[in-house]
Amino acid sequence: MEHHVDVLIIGAGISGIGAAVHLQQSCPELSFKILERRSNIGGTWDLFRYPGIRSDSDMSTLSYQFYPWLKSQTLADGQAIQDYLEEVVDHYDLSTLIEFEKHVKAANYDTQSKYWRLHVANKEQCTETWQARFLISCTGYYDYDQGYLPKFPQQDNFQGLLIHPQHWPADLNYQNKNVVVIGSGATAVTLVPALVKTGARHVTLLQRSPSYVAKVSAQDSTYQFLHRHLSAKWAYRFVRGRNILLQRIVFQMSESMPKLTKRLLLNAVAQEVQGKVDMHHFTPNYAPWDQRLCAVPDGDLFQVLREGAASIVTDHIECFTASGIQLKSGKYLPADLIVAATGLQIQLLGGLKLTIDHQPVKLSEKMLYQGVLLSDVPNFALMMGYSNASWTLKVDIAAQYVCQLLKYMRKHHYKEVVAHTDFQQRTQNGIMGKLSSGYLKRATDIMPKQGKRLPWRISHNYLLDKFILKYASFRDKNLSFRD
Fold first, then answer.
1. Judging by beta carbons within 10 Å of its beta carbon (0-12, 13-18, 19+), is residue 422 exposed, middle or buried?
2. pLDDT of residue 406
3. CB proximity list for 252: less than 8 A, separation 6 or greater
4. Rounded distance, CA 182 to CA 342, Å?
5. What is the pLDDT of residue 446?
6. Kind and range of the H or E element at 217?
7. Exposed, middle or buried by CB within 10 Å (0-12, 13-18, 19+), for 8?
8. Hey, which residues does 7 pair with through a beta bridge?
9. In this structure, are residues 312 and 294 in contact, taking their beta carbons and an 8 Å threshold?
10. What is d(CA 286, CA 483) in angstroms, rounded to the nearest whole number?
């Protein structure tokens, strides 16, 4: 079977749904479809099912500006986010535009016809051919099939169950069992209090090194107050603007005054643990925002640690045993269940094979023009969110930019646009900024690179990007158009 549309969106998660709404509203004359490899929308929020799964960004900025999150929850659980996305799909009548169980295996751009030709496996594992003038990749940056699971010393000795949160068994029984969670990131700090509250006997957070952890209010009191005096939409607009500004201020403080920021963050943690947990477990050896800050709603992690229902250990693993983990310090952690919250396996474009005239495209040699267009690849946009703020903030304005570009091309009867790599601008830094998280370090060889300055430098600054992308001129020496 062969299908033809003007624009193809790959992925029906937050990025893909947002891009679809922008296309629908701004470019109604263009036909488009979303190809989703899974049987449901939502991406991350449909895939992850571990206890306590929730956002680590506030919902006023994780939600779309065009469809406000009109609730007082600061951080929302996975099901609430999934429900929100389904509301958006229903409201904008997108369901007929999403093709489920369509796994894009390869995409080739033909420079003669100026069309993308995609090979897509359907649910019967038969190959379909899709053709489109423009591609928008909304697949995120990690492998949906497998998380990052290192080989632990003598892990085969363990007689209990070892799992990764990305593949949480639906029927897993951890009631009245000892659980060890290995990790120190957002998933780990979410899992520990959730497992305690849902029946685990004791939960131990085992980390090689600490992360910065900050308490946030589960309910936004400002939104609640404003909602009593203003409409929900005006309350949302105020809270959203405030949160965007606060995110930027905290990040800028971390950059310009790292010692002060570190002291403020650690003082806040000290007030929460009340002397019942050694502060060295919460004192990282890196500056704030060198890795992503972990948020805990109403300090739930600190509460279970204070009460003794959970404990935290900073150490290195000597080996696994039949009934737990032996640490290099000599301490032993008994375990019935071990959860390796060890991060993601980086993968771009959902693993599809990208070619131009059947010649492979090497992503690590590319840059992103305006943080959106993949260099030297015609008619191709890569949606990547922020590393230091809500993902949606960036993909929202990036989708608006793509719509402006498509309208410009239609107006001038152009069939092709290419952003040409300026090799003098290219650095060896990845597009995710200065974050030193392990999963990003492992991806250096596959990620597109940063440029030295705009339009090739990724600013990770929403306020700057919003202005630049809104008023961007397409009459730029870096861009070439062909009819």
1. middle
2. 98
3. none
4. 7
5. 82
6. none
7. buried
8. 32, 134
9. no
10. 51
Radius of gyration of the CA atoms of the chain, in A? 23
Residues 6+ apart with CB under 8 A from 268: 214, 215
Contacts of 232 (CB under 8 A, 6+ apart): 68, 70
How many residues appear in the chain?
Answer: 483
Query: What is the residue whose two structure tokens read 């069939």?
Result: 415
AA identity, residue 18: G
| Cα dihedral 53, 59, 62, 64 in deg (nearest 10) | 130
Q: What are phi and psi of 145, to 5 degrees?
A: -85, -30
Classify residue 188 as left (phi > 0), alpha (psi -120 to 50) or beta.
Answer: alpha
What are the distances in angstroms from CA 137 to CA 12, 210, 263, 353, 461? 10, 34, 40, 13, 21
Burial class (CB within 10 angstroms; exposed 0-12, middle 13-18, buried 19+) of 197: middle
Find, among 54, 103, 146, 51, the residue nearest to 439 by Cα.
146
28's tokens: 């109604």
Q: Phi/psi class of residue 460: alpha, beta or left (left: φ > 0; alpha: ψ in -120 to 50)? A: left
Amino acid in position 98: I
- Mean pLDDT, consecutive 10-residue segments, the chain of 483 residues? 93 97 97 97 95 93 95 93 97 97 97 97 92 97 92 96 95 96 95 96 97 94 92 92 93 92 96 95 92 92 96 97 97 97 92 96 94 97 91 96 97 96 85 65 78 91 94 93 94
Check residue 258 and give its pLDDT.
93
What region does 355 belong to: left with phi over 0, alpha with psi -120 to 50, or beta?
A: beta
Q: pTM here?
A: 0.93
Q: Single out the residue of 74, 131, 117 nearest to residue 246, CA to CA.
A: 74
The predicted pLDDT at position 424 comes to 86
Question: Is the four-CA dihedral 217, 221, 222, 223 of positive or negative sign?
Answer: positive
Residue type, 297: P
Can you give the pLDDT at residue 291? 84
